[in-house]
Write a structure and sequence with these properties.
The protein is an alpha/beta fold. The protein is 38% helix and 24% strand.
Length: 119
Amino acid sequence: MRFLVDQDIYKITIDHLREWGHDLLTAKELGLQQAPDEDLLKRTQAEKRLLLTRDKGFGGLVFLNKELSTGVILLRMTPTVAEEVHHELHRLFEEHGEEELRNVFCVVEPHRHRIRHLP
C-alpha cells in the first residue's frame, strides 16, 4: 500500500510499515511537517496515497469538506500500546485492500479497528 505518513507517527511504526513492504512518503521527507492539515490532505490526494496519522482533527476535515476527502487511517496509540496497535494495523491490511481504504476514515486501536465510509 502507498502511504503519506504524518509527522506524528512513531519511527517504530514507520519501520514496521517499511518491513511489511509498504511504499511510504513522510511529511518530513516532503517538507510538510509544519504544513496545515488541509495541505497534507491535498498532497495525499495528489500522490494517490492513504494518510496515516495520530491526529484526530483529520476526521472533521474529511467528513466536512468533500474536496479534502481521502482515505485516512488514524492510529490511537501511545508507546505502551504500540505493539498491539501494530498487530491490529497488520490485520486491517490483511482484511482490506488499498482501494477499499481510499474512501474511508479508519480508527485503529489495540485489538480492534473501526471503518467509516466517507460521504
